[in-house]
What we know:
This is Type I-F CRISPR-associated protein Csy3. InterPro entries: CRISPR-assoc_prot_Csy3 (IPR013399). By secondary structure, this protein is an alpha+beta fold. It has one domain (about 5-25, about 80-335). It is built from eight helices and 20 strands. The strands form six sheets. Strands 2, 3, 4, 9, 11, 12, 13, 14 and 15 form a nine-stranded antiparallel beta sheet that branches. Strands 10-1-20 form a three-stranded antiparallel beta sheet. A two-stranded antiparallel ribbon has the order 5-8. Strand 18 (about 285) and strand 19 form a beta hairpin. The protein is globular, with a radius of gyration of 24 Å.
Amino acid sequence: MDLCSQLNYVRSLSSGKAYFYYLSKNDEMCPIGVDRTRLRAPKGGYAEAYKGSNFSPKNVAPQDLAYANPQYIEECYVTPGVDDIYCAFSLRIRANSLSPEVCNDDGVRDALLSLAATYKELNGYHELAHRYAKNILSGKWLWRNEECRGLSIEVTTSDQEKIVVEDATRLSWYGKWDEPSTQSLELLTAYLTRALSERSEYFYMDIRAKLSVGWGDEIYPSQEFLDSREDGGPKKKLATVELQNGKETAAFHGQKVGAALQSIDDWWHEDADKPLRVNEYGADREYVIARRHVALKNDFYHLIKDTEAWTKTMNETQVIPNEVHFIMSVLVKGGLFNGSSSKKSKEK
C-alpha cells in the first residue's frame, strides 16, 4: 500500500490540562501557587572553562569561575500545613482509529478500514486499552511528582463507575500488581476497550490523584517554553491554570499528560526494557536515539506499507503481530501521515 498525499487521523485520546490543588478544612479547592525566586547559582558548565571538545582550557582567572551566575526562576512548593495535595484532569476517548479523518485515495482508505476492522474483531484494542489503563492507574502522568509519600488514584467514568487504586506508588509497568489493583486495572481496561472501538457513545473520564506530601515539598508542574525572555521576566516559567475563584494554580499541559499515557511502545525490540512514547520512529529521549530507525525497517511508515499483508496474516492466523499493535497505537495517537504526491514522485 502506498501512502496517499492526504492522510490524517484525529487522536483518540484527548486529555485536558492537569491542575494541582489542596482542600481547605471546608473542602474548598485552594490553589498551589508559583513562587518567583532570584538566586545566585555557581558557574559549573563545561563551556565556562573549556572550549571545543578536546578539553582545551580557556584563559580564565580563578576569580572568574568563582563569580555567581544570577538567575530569576519560578518554583512551586507545597503550602506548609498541607499534608495532601491533588492533581486532576479529564480525558475524552473516541474511536477515531477505526477510519481516517482525511484520505484522498479510496484504495488506501479501504485497506486501513479493513486493518482496523480485523484488529477490532481479534480484540486488539484490549491490548492498547490495558496499556493506557496501566499508565493511568500507576500515576505515570504525574511524572516526577509520582515520587511522594503516598499515592492513590481515582477514576470516574462516563458510566459513573468509580475505579480506585489505593497504593499506586507500589505499581510499575513490569511489576506484579496486587489483587485489588489488578481488579481495578481490568475494569478500566474493559471501559477503554469499548471507548476505543465503539462510536455509538461518548466516552470520557475524570482522573484524580491524591498525593501525601511533606510541608514545603517541591512540586514539578510543566515548564513553559520561552521563545524569548521578557525584560525583567523569569528565565524559567511554570505552567498555571485559573481556578473558579480566579486564582492561578500549578498545572501540567495536556500534551505532557498525553505523552505519559502514550508511553506504551515496548514492541520496539523483543528484549525492550521500557515502554517508549508512541512515535513513528521510536524516539528515545533518554538515549537520544531513534529505536525505530528506517535502517531497522521497524518504523511506522515501513510497516504500514504492508497493511494488506498484515490484514491477511491476521485473518489466516487469528493472531495479532506486535507490529500491528504498534501501527494501531500510532493511529490512536493520530497525526498527519501523508506520503509524497504523484507530482513530487515523478520529479524525483
